[in-house]
Amino acid sequence: GIQVEQSPPDLILQEGANSTLRCNFSDSVNNLQWFHQNPWGQLINLFYIPSGTKQNGRLSATTVATERYSLLYISSSQTTDSGVYFCAVLLLNSGYSTLTFGKGTMLLVSP
Amino acid sequence: GAVVSQHPSRVICKSGTSVKIECRSLDFQATTMFWYRQFPKQSLMLMATSNEGSKATYEQGVEKDKFLINHASLTLSTLTVTSAHPEDSSFYICSARIHGGGLVSPQHFGDGTRLSIL
Question: Which chain A positions have a beta carbon within 8 Å of B93's beta carbon?
Fold first, then answer.
């Protein structure tokens, strides 16, 4: 099956710093989503980004589908950004589609 | 929009009990819903795909007799963990895809159910 690798696995930032999270995938995908899982376990959909660049406030994401990677940028980080960031790719196969998650990047933003 | 409600949020029960978890799409219809399991400090693993009006499709290694899935309407899917044991303790999360949105449309997630079996 498809492999999804996220880096770095852990990241500690000072409040106000910027960061870039990376997601590499081993095969062509039909879609890609970035999620933030907060400390309570809630999974928040950040971006639905099969290709191109999107921005939402302090967050932006870029997917280069031809090179099989996506980047999530967090600018001016805040303590509320702490949690785990997951990248998930979607494959369509014989009319059946499933999301495959990476192992995540655990982010801790300290005051 | 695209709100998915999952209930209960937390369950603690004795070994041997069966536990039912509900997943509802509140403001849209969902022909297809998905059930994931997440162990501590690990990623989400797909357990099964639930299709309205038909049998669920289980991923390899997931016991269909242990994890019963029913998707009786376009807004409700249930997961029943039968005769639960401590090793079934985990965080269970459902998601739903908007009916008519296409197979590659995004999945919308519930807030999860933390199941603890004593």
Answer: 41, 43
Residue B94's nearest CA partner among B53, B56, B55 is B56
Exposed, middle or buried: residue A86 (CB in 10 Å: 0-12, 13-18, 19+)?
Answer: buried
The pLDDT of residue B62 is 95
Please say whether the dihedral angle defined by the alpha carbons of residues B54, B46, A22 and A65, taken in this order, is positive or negative.
negative
Residue of B4, B33, B44, B57 to mutate when probing chain A, most A C-beta within 10 A: B44
CB–CB of A54/A97 below 8 Å?
no
Can you tell me which residue has the tokens 């106000």? Answer: A16
pLDDT for B49-107, tens place per residue? 998 888 899 999 999 999 999 998 999 999 999 999 999 999 999 999 988 877 778 88
Specify the 3-state DSSP secondary structure of B57: strand
Distance CA A20, CA B45 (A): 25
Provide the 3-class DSSP secondary structure of residue A28: coil
